[in-house]
Amino acid sequence: MAYDFQVTQDSADPHTLADWWAETLGWEVEPSDEAFIRRMVDEGYATEAETTTHRGVLVWRAGAAIRHPEGPQRAPRVLFQHVPEGRRGAPGTEESVSERRHNRMHLDVRIGDDDRAEVVARLVSRGASRLWDGQQGPYTWVTMADPEGNEFCVT
């Protein structure tokens, strides 16, 4: 039996990071169902503390998801879930590169024929960090970190 999956990324600020990744990939942030959230709180299934407001919209505090504009048949959903602890080795921390915990899994953003230098520069201007350039045989990529320090590659 084949299973479906979503990619889940721990995050200090899931709604802001979901916005960042949606813009980066040209995807959509899943809309919030404010009426459903309000009903869950009103009926006692959730508390006000489990909600927050993001960009003027009532949302679940625990996370935000993005999806490919063509739907789940095109690419898996990406969920950004709130975790209280920060990422070890994130930009702005005092750990050296050798002490950083690297992602065991990461996204490769495949940009096709777009100019890699332009894409990387645009991502840096939006808060990403350029970490290093990689090459294996004829294949090259740029390893970067999103605004929360999660590594990804631009290929």
Textual characterization of the structure:
The chain has 155 residues and is an alpha+beta fold. Helices cover 20% and strands 30% of the residues. It has three helices and ten strands, in the order E-H-E-H-E-E-E-E-E-H-E-E-E. The chain has helices spanning 14-25, 34-42, 116-125, and strands spanning 7-11, 28-29, 51-54, 57-60, 63-67, 78-82, 107-109, 129-136, 139-145, 151-154. The strands form three sheets. It has a four-stranded mixed β-sheet, covered by helices on one side. A four-stranded mixed β-sheet has the order 7-10-9-8, with helices on one face. It has a two-stranded antiparallel ribbon with strand order 3-4. The longest helix is centred in the N-terminal third of the chain and has 12 residues, at 14-25. It is elongated and about 60 Å long. The two termini are 32 Å apart. The mean pLDDT is 90.
Question: How do the strands and helices of this protein lay out in sequence?
Answer:
Layout: E1 7-11, H1 14-25, E2 28-29, H2 34-42, E3 51-54, E4 57-60, E5 63-67, E6 78-82, E7 107-109, H3 116-125, E8 129-136, E9 139-145, E10 151-154
Parallel strand pairs: 1-6, 7-10
Antiparallel strand pairs: 2-5, 3-4, 5-6, 8-9, 9-10
What would the average pLDDT be, to the nearest integer? 90
Number of helices in the DSSP assignment = 3
- Largest sheet, order of strands side by side? 1-6-5-2
Structural class: alpha+beta
Low-confidence stretches: none
Distance between the termini: 32 Å
Radius of gyration: 17 Å
Q: Can you count the beta strands?
A: 10
